[in-house]
Backbone:
């Protein structure tokens, strides 16, 4: 298994600003992911964070809006840029350990944009 | 049609009841099946993980996979108020494949 620490746990931000969310895993993992979860909804994959290369974004998500870094096998960041109220959501970091299929999640970042 | 369908609930049961949570899927390539529990304002927590068809038991929880029917279930015996949460099913075709999530079922266990 993997233990994932995510911060901040919550934030209230002004529109037009940016927020960077950090994700730290307690062991080296092959794959790290960023999800968004609207209240009462399931998880929507934003992107896969690739170590040493650019992230792979899902349809509807772009690098300019959600830049991602992954400098090593245990750490990643997601930035929500030029925020608007529509970006208010829970953002979740996830990781999969080598050779395994199951994914583990951080506690999430609850973002409110005002 | 979504790849993975899950009744959103809410499902309300009395304490001690047996709970059955289900997902159906359309992609026959799925071989790995997971159940996550998510408490309010928390991240999803992995509960059960199964490969291919069959049953897997862990304490009060039993996961069941029927690949011929493309149907998976999670049974909770002797349900407790602390089981009140949203339960998400997830599945994948392999270690390098993305997870596909169901929409989640909200469960309420009343004392």
Residues:
């Amino acid at each position: 298994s993997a233990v994932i620490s995510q911060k901040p746990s919550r934030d209230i931000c002004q529109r037009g600003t940016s927020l960077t969310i950090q994700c730290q895993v307690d062991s080296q993992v092959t794959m790290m992911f960023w999800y968004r979860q609207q209240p009462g909804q399931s998880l929507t994959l934003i992107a896969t964070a690739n170590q040493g290369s650019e992230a792979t974004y899902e349809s509807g998500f772009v690098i300019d809006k959600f830049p991602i870094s992954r400098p090593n096998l245990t750490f990643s960041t997601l930035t929500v840029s030029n925020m608007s109220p529509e970006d208010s959501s829970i953002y979740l970091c996830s990781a999969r350990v080598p050779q395994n299929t199951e994914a583990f999640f951080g506690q999430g970042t609850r973002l409110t944009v005002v | 049609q979504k790849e993975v369908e899950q009744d959103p609930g809410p499902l309300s049961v009395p304490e001690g009841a047996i709970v059955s949570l289900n997902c159906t899927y359309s992609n026959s390539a799925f071989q790995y099946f997971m159940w996550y529990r998510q408490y309010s304002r928390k991240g999803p927590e992995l509960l059960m993980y199964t490969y291919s068809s069959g049953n897997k038991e862990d304490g009060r929880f039993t996961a069941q996979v029927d690949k011929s029917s493309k149907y998976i279930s999670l049974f909770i015996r002797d349900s407790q108020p602390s089981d009140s949460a949203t339960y998400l099913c997830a599945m994948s075709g392999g270690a390098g494949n993305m997870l596909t999530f169901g929409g989640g079922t909200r469960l309420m266990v009343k004392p």
